[in-house]
Each structure stands twice: as structure tokens, then as C-alpha cells.
Amino acid sequence: MTKQLDVSNIRPNVRKVEFRLKDEVVDRALSYKKLFEDKDPKTSELKFPDLVFFNVGDAHVAGQKPISFYRQVLAMIAYPPLMDNPPAGIPEDAVQRARVLHKASAGLGAYSGAQGLLHVRQTCAKFIEKRDGFASDANNIILTDGSYDALKIGFELLIRDERDTILIPAPGYPLYSAVIREIGGIPQHYFLEDKHQFNPQVDELKRVYEQAESKGQKIRAIVINNPGNPAGNVLSRETLVQLLKFAKEKNIVVMADEVYQVNAYDIKAPFVSLRKISKEEDIQVEMLSFQSTSKGFSAECGVRGGYIEFYNVDGNTVKEAVKLVSVRLSPNTTGQIILDLACDPPTEGQASYPLFHEESEAIMGQLRRKAKAIEDSFNSMNGTSCAEIKGSLFAFPQIHFSEKALQSAKEAGLSPDTFYASQLLDATGVCVSSGNIFGQKEGTYHIRLTLMPTEDRVKVALDRIKTFNEEFYRKYQ
Amino acid sequence: MTKQLDVSNIRPNVRKVEFRLKDEVVDRALSYKKLFEDKDPKTSELKFPDLVFFNVGDAHVAGQKPISFYRQVLAMIAYPPLMDNPPAGIPEDAVQRARVLHKASAGLGAYSGAQGLLHVRQTCAKFIEKRDGFASDANNIILTDGSYDALKIGFELLIRDERDTILIPAPGYPLYSAVIREIGGIPQHYFLEDKHQFNPQVDELKRVYEQAESKGQKIRAIVINNPGNPAGNVLSRETLVQLLKFAKEKNIVVMADEVYQVNAYDIKAPFVSLRKISKEEDIQVEMLSFQSTSKGFSAECGVRGGYIEFYNVDGNTVKEAVKLVSVRLSPNTTGQIILDLACDPPTEGQASYPLFHEESEAIMGQLRRKAKAIEDSFNSMNGTSCAEIKGSLFAFPQIHFSEKALQSAKEAGLSPDTFYASQLLDATGVCVSSGNIFGQKEGTYHIRLTLMPTEDRVKVALDRIKTFNEEFYRKYQ
């Protein structure tokens, strides 16, 4: 008798989900880490004194401190007696903010309604209005447990059957394809190239669209990730206009994954939302746009806050989405509180502003410098190059392999990028992600680095990478 | 050209989801509430001085205070400087606990791994071991954003296609059928009856099973909710043994929704887990069991904490479940912290114990007294009766309608239970839920009350209900 929950007997779509952010290289790095933690004598056989996890996307794990204002407010809401007797050093405006949010939520322990707290949705709507220059409606916003949850709502509305197809970027974050497969649709990659600074090209989109259509697929939407993970790109206004025109021409939904919108580092290449351009250029498309507490400078990943905004979408469909989330009664309250604070941080003149400004600017400055250091480093070495890192929290340098190196990778049974990452780890203790995890145009190979390690550790890692890379280059020349 | 997100063009399963906890009666109560808030002169036309929301399942909204220990620990983790300089009155063991959890989590802002923090899973495993008398494995536990999330993982593993069927209780919480429909399976009710104190009967299960099978449905699992919402039942050991034998005979999975396990009020009818009985009676079935932070005495609904434990389930299927949740990277950290504290609260001898004991016992005592008052009240009135309220946070008294009352309800175009609830609201300001929201055996009618209003308000409401009911009874006799 087959067991009901035998793995051969579970939902097929669950088995079809593929998701990995780690490969054998990261697994090995973690086993090295354990050796160091256990003070294992085997560490003396390693070629490096310690590890640098240049693959980790979690700022707080990498040592970044939370923004004080956010956490002061949260702590007082968590334990309300603190609002009456604030601990020393907590500014008055933080106390006031805690009172407002505590009242609006009936506390952390209360359900907040399926759509999330109206107060927080109104804060998000004002944030969007300030960003784009025209109003957003709090009724069209659903607060979520992080952007995963928000994206999933979008995909679930869109995918009707197994022909339904979503265009997603490659390189791109593996979440998209995993969720699309879980729901039973087809994730279809469009490729971004270094030579275009990872700006999507309409020719490529048309190629992919037509190929998919010719196979009987029904293209429902395009995901645009700007600023982008892992490419570190911030899309040009011209590119965004072209993308909107393409979506309008094909009558497909635009899913604007703009969770890294605060993470734009180049004053000459600011982030502009697709929503704003759609309005300004009068290119009306159905649009879902996404935000998260996990990014920006605060990187509050663990609290799981985010939103989906429906723009130019049938009101009855928004109602269906609200019905869908109503089954779970409420997104988590902590994520909503942090989202509120991130969308409406202290402003000049408020008591919390000086510290908030200092902390956030310090983090942004570090991110900017780390991005520049990584970019410069990979553009100065033999056999590597790096597109401009204008945004997000990642770098995606390209490794150009010689025929000899490609042959050696093949013999080792590894993708060339994994071959490089693997040797890099064993030679230097620097752990990076292989580009193939994120997808890459055929015949190109990359590694992904995050901007999370401290500046000191980034410098250490880049020095080690340089030494390794020059040796790798010489060896396989 | 049809819009992609026109409501006619979205995923059919989304449209099929039905979920409501409110009906027109609750909507009207909310409109009355607004009149009172706005000090609208129209309130003088109402027959009552204020409202009692006897339908609301949110203890914190109803005025219950959070457990101090939980929130003290959470506040210090939220704003770590408080761990070094604890505010006056925070006991040392709370500070220690915050330090341990802060270290185990790398703080609220860090991802905690897809399965949730190992530390918290180990706490849950110890809690289960203590409860059942034999070990639980932290590797078989996934921490979730509330029990909705946990139940959904179970349903998603089980439902392969549109024939797959899950047996669910009626009366029961509407979440089950909503999620099963969303995933594309069939929710199949088995009925619980007042006369059996809402203990499921094997004859009824066999009837439903055979009927479903004869239609070509494939029964995959049975949901058992104990203690039960809305019935207020705690299942007898004998019933649980029979249910396990039935599940074993039919080779179906047992989904043990035991989120109200702390809410058992009758010493003579304690909660016993299905897992414990399965082991003690050696009735081995595949089992998923569920817990939540939203229930018990702390009722921390908004933080969204919970777990699913896999018991006697193929290890590869557990791996598939972990893969599935890995896409979202992490359940929210606040929910995990509160779950840890609820599974391992202060014990005698610890500095936090006296206050914790006082607060939790006070709440449990109130719940017990409220349950008794409601039960007694409905058993003492004409035309109403109430099964013993042994557990959960609800009461589900039956209203026995005369032919005349049934006829009047029909003429009003309302289900009889809604007809009663509607008249009750307009006559007294007491808002209750109609039984048909939860399902009820044909020809029986109920209302659902929650144990959430304060004891004072429960007394006020029961008095008003009594007056109304006697008049209703006389009128339709």
C-alpha cells in the first residue's frame, strides 16, 4: 500500500519547484566554517586564516546594526509600558510614533485585517505619491509577509493553467521561477547582457515572446527587477520606456519588482519607478509593484514586511486578491510596523533625525564604496570584467575563461563559474555564488558577490581574489 | 482586447475560494459601531446603549493584555541596547532569555533559515516531548507564519489533482475549505452533532468516505480539530482512538489541528494529542500536527507564529516541504520568538514566574468562567441548548426554531440562524456569528459566540440575549 505522503505521491508541482541559493561551493564553505568554530586541527591544512562569506545576502548576519529609530519604536510597541516610561535616550518623537502605531494596530498581538493596517497602507500610499508625483490609493495596496508573499499573490492571480507564461530576467533571482513552477505556470527567461549594462533589450524580449508563443504558450506578464539582483543594474529611463511600450503592445502585465529602489548609488542614474514613467509617458499598462523591508539601508529581512500595489488593475481583481489573503486573516504586525517606519522615516527637525540620518548615510556610503571597490577590482584584473554597479546589493562580475580553463572545468565535471568559485574558496577562503544559480546568457560566466561584508572584509576578500585570479589566469593562459 | 487582469481572466481557483467570517449581521453591527463612534444622533433610535461584539476572535482587540514576560523579552530583542540596560522592573531571567534568543537568531532583522531557527525548533520539539512522553525531532518541524501557513503546506503536499479530497469537520473553521479550493482539491465535510458533544462519529466518517469514493474522489487526509472551533469541544480519548483506527484502515493522513491545545477547561476532559495516542495505542498513521501562537492564553494573533510537525512521514517528503518553504527564505522572526516563549514559559523558581503565573491563570480562569456562563445560559433558556464547552475559545449553542419562526425566516429571505442573529443585534446590540458560516448538520441551527469579551461584557450580553430570546420564543411559539 503506497503511503499517502510518500515522496512519489505528493503534489507534482511541489516536486517541480527548483530553488537553490547554495551550491556545493557554499556547502563546503560552511563545512570549513564549522572547522574554525570547532577549532579543529584540520584548519591548519587550509590555505587561509579565515573565511569571507561574499555570498551572504543578510546584512544583519554580516554584522550590520539595525536602524535605532525603527527598533526603538518597535520595542515600545512590543512592551507598551515602555511608552509610558521610555528608557533613557529614546527621543520623544519615537515615543509619539510608537503611540500612534500602537493605537492604529491595537498592538502587535491583534490581527490587522487581511489587507494590513489601513494606517500603514496610507503611509505606503503617501510614500508612493511622494516618489512618483501622483496619488496612490491605500485600497489598492495589500501588505504582505515580505516580497516573496507579494510576488506570489501576483503570480497566483495570473497563472490560470500550464500554458500561462511569465517572462523573467536572467540573470535574476531564483524565486520567480520557483514560485511560477509551484503554481503551475511556465517561467521564461529573457537574457540580460553585460555589454548593455544588463539593460533588457526589446529585441531579446521579442525573440523570447515569439518563441514562447510559437510553442503555444500564453504570455501573461513580464517581471522587471530594477535595481536588479544579481546584476547590480539600475535601468535607464530609456530602457524602462521601451519595456513599457513592449508590454503595452503585447498587452501583458508589468510586475515591477522594485524592492531595491532605495539602493541606487549613482546620482547620474537614479531609480525611477515604472509607475511614474507609465504616467509621465502615458503608456498605460496593468501593473503590480512590489516593495520590501528586507532591502534599502535597514535590511530588515527577518521581520518579513512588504507590499503589493495594484496600479491600473480591475477593481474586482483587487477584491479577489484581498479575498485570497483574507483566509490568513493578517500579515504579521512587526513587518507592518517596520514598513511604516521605512516609508515614513524621521525628517529634519525631529529629535530622531540626526541619529537616523547618520546611521542611514553611513550604511549608504559604505554600500556605495563597496560597490565601487568591487567594480574597480574586477575591471582591473586579467580575465575578469564588471558592468557598472549602480544599485541593489550585489555585483555580478564576468569571468572570461580560456579554452584551457573551460576544458579543465569540463574535466572536473563543473560549470566553469562553479569551477572558478570552487578553486577561489579553497585557495582563499572567499565564498562567492556561481552565476549559473541566477541564469546567464549562454557562453558567459559570472560570479555573484554581495555588498554585505563590512568594508574591511571586502578589502581583505578583494585582495585575496586578486592574488588568486592572477594565478588562475596564468595557470590557464 | 481583454485585460490580462480582468476578473474574468484570472486564475479560476482564486475565484473559487470562498471565505467569510462576517455576514450581513456583522456588517450592520460595524455600521452601528460607526454611528456610536461618530456620536451620530441616529444612535438615539437604536434599542441599545452600546454594542457587544460576541463574534470577535481577537483577544487583544477585546482588551486582553499581552503576557508581560513574552513582551519584555521581545522588546529587548527588538532594541538590543535594552539587554545591556534593562528598563526598571524587567526580571533578570527575561534579560537572559532575550540574550539567548538574540544570539540564536542574529537578531530580528536576520533571516532565520527556511525551516526557522534551530533553537526554536528544538524548543518546540522539547515541548512536544514533554506533552506526549516521547521524543520529537526538530528536523521534522517547520516554523511558519501562523497556523494558516502551516496548514497550507500540508494541503499543498497532499492535493495532486482535482479529485483529491480532504475530510474536514462541519461545524469547522472556514479556512480549511478555502485553502483546499485555492489549491484545487475537494473539501468534504463530515458532520459533528450536538447530541454527541460534537465528537466525530465513525459511522458518519464512513458514510462521507464512501459517498466521496463512489463519485471517483480520492480521499487523502482527514482534518481533526481538537479542541474545536467553533464547537468548543474537546474530543474524548475513545473518539480519538476510533478516528486513528479509521485513518489507518483507510490509509489516509491525519492532520491534527491542535492549535487550541492549551484551551481545555475541564479537568475531567483534558486535551490529549493524537500523536500521543497514536504511539500509546500503536496505531501508526502518517500525521501532520499544528500549533499556533494565536491561541492559548496569550492569543498572540498578530505576530503570526506557528509550526507544522511531521510525524511518521517519509523523510524525502519533509525535504520537499523544506524546499518549498525555502523559496521565501524565512518565517518572520517575531512569531518564532513568541512561539519559543510560549513553548517554554517561565517555571517555578524563576524571577518571571510569579507574574507569568498570575497573568496566565487569570486569563484561563476568566475563559473557564465565561465558557460556563455561556453554557449555563443557553441551557436555561427556552428553545436553546448548548453542548458542554470544554475547550477552544468558542461556544456554539443550538437554537431550536418553531415552525412559525422557520416560516418567518424564510419570508425574510434569511437562514434561520441569521434571522435570529439579525433580530438579536437589532434588539440588543449583541453581535454573534451565524452558524451557517461554519457549517452545521442539515436542519440544525446555531450561533457562534467567542470567549473574548471581558467577563463584565459577557454578563451584559448574556442578560440581553436572555431577554431577547424569551421574547423571540414567545413571539414564534
UniProtKB/TrEMBL annotation, chains A, B:
InterPro entries: ALAT1/2-like, Aminotransferase_I/II_large, PyrdxlP-dep_Trfase, PyrdxlP-dep_Trfase_major, PyrdxlP-dep_Trfase_small. This is Alanine aminotransferase. Keywords: Aminotransferase, Pyridoxal phosphate, Transferase. GO terms for molecular function: pyridoxal phosphate binding; transaminase activity. Residues 90-465 form the Aminotransferase class I/classII large domain. Homodimer. One of its GO terms (biological process) is L-alanine catabolic process. Belongs to the class-I pyridoxal-phosphate-dependent aminotransferase family. Alanine aminotransferase subfamily. Its cofactor is pyridoxal 5'-phosphate.
